[in-house]
Specification:
The chain has 343 residues and is α/β, with parallel strands linked by helices. It has 10 helices and 14 strands. It is 30% helix and 17% strand. Strand 2 and strand 3 form a beta hairpin.
Length: 343
């Protein structure tokens, strides 16, 4: 349930009003915009009488929110959420996702060697990427495939971060890996873990932003409910990521659901980014999908780039070469400018 307060409501009366709900056992989500203050009530509101609440002198309007997600809903939080990544560290050039600024994340699917990740980091930075990606813990379909370098891979990523100043983005598969993530700027929860609810609750306790990828057969509602798990556990810095879903057709690796961008912009305040690499699985298609995503309003992109894709240990066939990434970065600002944004 959301309660919109009167513009001229007295501060002290508002405090009393909120305290009263807390005493009654409800969680409170407060959103103070330029013109309105919205009190989101969390908990079982089914037996509350909206008319009785309206009778309070500080209340303007009461609305029931039928969607099962509350904190992720735009009704609870009308303004766009802007998520900052790596902005609080000396020597790191952090940046934001949301509103006017399109965040471009690029790097290899997997960290393979220190030289590989440092070389790619330098190349993507030169081309204009703002964040470096690279998997150290890899979720692979086959237990016999390369599983990532683990902690050593994270060390190499940190070296690349030191050399370039790019904040780093990498996947956490299991809460036992968190102890190695001190220098990671954005924690990725991959498609396969989107509904690992215990892991999501743990991500709610972490003081770092979370990149939550859509499960390959997850509905948009399920994606938002997973974001809700993280937010309800205490972490509101969530970035959503569409990485393609499974359909009946398999001419691409997955199917990029572009409609999710306008839908989520309407339904949620959280930034939404697109992963055209996993969505298509095809290098030649990645630039087209990236441009389409930016034109449709995506808040960012996560793109796989490899300096030797033929020899890549994972996802080489969908990785851009550094020069192809640089060519894409030259044209992306044109698409961003369609609605007055920059990247
Ligand atoms: C990845 O980003 O390399 C990855 C494994 O992504 P997803 O979880 O979307 O498959
Ligand atoms: Mn990959």
């Amino acid at each position: 349930m959301i309660i919109i307060l009167k513009k001229n409501a007295e501060e002290k009366k508002v405090e009393e009003f909120i305290e009263n709900w807390k005493k009654r056992g409800f969680g409170i989500h407060l959103s103070k915009g330029e013109n309105t203050t919205i009190v989101g009530l969390l908990g079982d509101t089914s037996s509350l009488d909206a008319n009785a609440i309206c009778a309070n002198e500080v209340v303007d309007v009461v609305q029931r929110v039928s969607a099962p997600y509350k904190m992720a809903s735009r009704k609870f939080h009308p303004e766009d959420t802007i998520v900052s990544v790596g902005t609080d560290q000396p020597g790191v050039k952090g940046s934001t996702f949301g509103k006017k600024s399109i965040g471009i994340i690029a790097g290899p699917c997997s960290v393979e060697t220190e030289e590989q990740v440092v070389e790619i980091a330098k190349a993507v930075k030169k081309a204009g990427a703002r964040f470096l990606r690279g998997g150290a813990f890899k979720p692979r379909t086959s237990p016999y495939s390369f599983q990532g370098l683990g902690k050593k891979g994270l060390d190499f990523l940190v070296t690349a971060k030191k050399e370039t100043g790019l904040p780093i983005v990498t996947e956490l598969m299991d809460i036992r890996q968190l102890k190695y993530f001190d220098d990671v700027d954005l924690i990725q929860i991959g498609a396969r873990n989107m509904q690992n609810f215990d892991l999501l609750k743990e991500m709610g306790k972490v003081k770092k932003p979370i990149l939550l990828k859509r499960g390959m057969s997850a509905t948009v509602k399920e994606l938002l409910m997973s974001a809700e798990y993280i937010m309800a556990s205490g972490n509101e810095n969530v970035i959503l990521c569409e990485r393609g879903i499974r359909t009946f057709d398999n001419y691409t690796r997955n199917c990029m659901d572009i409609s999710i961008i306008p839908y989520l912009k309407k339904e949620s305040h959280l930034p939404i980014i697109i992963d055209p690499s996993h969505a298509s699985g095809l290098r030649w298609m990645v630039p087209t999908l990236a441009k389409a995503a930016v034109a449709a309003g995506a808040d960012g992109l996560i793109i796989e780039v490899h300096n030797n894709p033929e020899k890549a240990l994972c996802d080489g066939e969908q990785s851009l070469r550094p020069e192809e990434f640089a060519d894409l970065m030259k044209v992306l600002p044109k698409y961003a400018a369609l609605d007055g944004r920059t990247c």
